[in-house]
């Protein structure tokens, strides 16, 4: 594969194109400064303005959320896996019907495999603009967002209406639901009762992995983070590994799986028969199957990288509480 063909499979951090109208809370005070990025696959955006960098999916989607301090993402649930790791900043994740059942604070490099079937939200509690990277289960992640009723009501008060077709309509811009399209109904009390209310102690031990623990585990080989035999045991249709300077393969390797490389720290040199490139923190690269490759940190100092591969597991319901 030529360098030009491989470069087309890289989304550079500096080239990310945000969407500020991706979700129903885009006008709601406290959430109206969010930026959503769809890197691989269409993600779960509800806006036609969302730019998709790489449309072909390897069995999962890659996205990101960027937020200034004190900005939050409203309470919602997913039908498939949602995994975040913190690229920049300090973030508080919270969950439950009203966001008060439990919470955890994640620092840079920490990863959270959020249980399916619970309402969750997050906010940047740092002092600067923050970024979290996301892995979403399945090729088609669209239509997978279920909003808490108060989120839909607050959005309507600020001019945004979500249709049953999963699309947003901005009444402030003169948009209205098309004929034959009803508004998204609110969940009933009976439906809401089916959503668990786990405590922090229920969630953190089995669903959160800390960066410095993964650095220690990857001293001699890649740390298995999300897998049937991983630190966070799960089978969501993809596997996540963590690599540091001490876990680099001695020789080129190949895999018949799709592989996505997401550097966390340091600059990583990827070489293959036909070329080489350097990946930087925040870059995302989709490496096709069957290509022999070598991966090495290109400079001294701290280096870490998340590696995601598709599996044969169905991208359906993952770990629930």
UniProtKB/TrEMBL annotation:
Gene3D superfamilies for this protein: Jelly Rolls (2.60.120.10)
TM region positions: none
InterPro entries: Cupin_2 (IPR013096), RmlC-like_jellyroll (IPR014710), RmlC_Cupin_sf (IPR011051)
Top-rank taxon, per record: Bacteria
Cupin type-2 domain mapped to chain residues: 69-132
Stated name of the protein: Cupin
Organism: Roseicyclus marinus
Taxonomic lineage: Bacteria, Pseudomonadati, Pseudomonadota, Alphaproteobacteria, Rhodobacterales
